[in-house]
User: What shape does this take?
Amino acid sequence: MPLEIRSLSDALGAEVIGLDVSHPFDDKIFATIHQAHLENLVLVFRGQNLTPQQQIEFSKRFGPLDAHPSQGNAHLEGYPDILVISTKTKDGKDVGIRNAGPMWHSDLAYRERPALGSMLYALELPDRRGNTGFANMYKAYEALPAHLKTAVEGKRAAFHSTRSDIDALHPIIRTHPETGWKSIFVNPQLTTGIEDMSETETEALLTEIYAHCDQPQFHYWHEWQPGDLAFWDNRCVLHIADHTRLDDPSYIRHMHRTTIAGDVPY
Assistant: This one.
């Protein structure tokens, strides 16, 4: 089957058909995939059948991996580069992170060097729900009202993670290191404040920005299929998981995630 890249929505996202990423492929194909990722922000590789090591090797084509600083037993045994996202339990304990991404966020934004991107591989899926939402922060920035662009110009936001107690300051408007395009980088899950602004001013400004970003024209909701491997660009994409059935014991959502290390935002 020839390689095909097919758009998934007007906002962002494309599916890659005809590529088995468990096998090596040449630099020409990789260049096509890399460019498609920059242009579509989210790529979904359909019909994959991957071992943990194969997922790791494919992920490394895009850069060195970044270990997630999660607490507890959230990494796959024997594979510290793979974070388990799962509602499954073993001996009465969660086997991974159960409620991953309950709010819009960008992975590891609280670090000095946030993630370049993340790859999430679907192993077991629920009968319904469990979708993942993605938001195009390029488009959100382009459509940002003039008064908000002025308000955030040159400002930095603070980010914090309760899981790892890490803090960082990053520009609210980030420039992508490869495309040169600008995007909104704050998010409601990890952003805790704005430098040199009062708590009241910060809350008012962020509330308005989040309301702007939470518009359907910026979003794509991915309905997972068995064997999907999704790769998103954390530098210009927010994502959120639909976990409205976490209290339902029949709800099984089991996935493996690798994270590609990024650079310092500017």
